[in-house]
Design a protein that fits this description.
This is DUF1127 domain-containing protein. InterPro entries: YjiS-like. The protein is mostly helical and 53 residues long. The chain is 70% helix and 0% strand. The chain has one domain. Helix 1 runs antiparallel to helix 3. The longest helix is centred in the first third of the chain and has 22 residues. It is elongated and about 45 Å long. It starts with a helix and ends in a 7-residue tail after the last helix.
Length: 53
């Protein structure tokens, strides 16, 4: 795998994680419970720095 491929893959995964984290903030509590999360955990995930993904 070339360095550019690795960087591209990293960027794609980072983008997916950020989109999911932003969606967590909009989900109702019932859906979060289905994921096994509380509102507090969802908020932590939404506001976590990208390097802690």
């Amino acid at each position: 795998m070339h360095m550019t491929d690795t960087l591209r893959l990293w960027r794609e995964r980072w983008t997916e994680r950020r989109l999911f984290a932003r969606e967590l903030d909009t989900l109702p509590d019932e859906t979060l419970r289905d994921f096994g999360m509380t509102r507090e955990v969802a908020n932590e995930q939404c506001h976590r720095p990208f390097w802690r993904a």
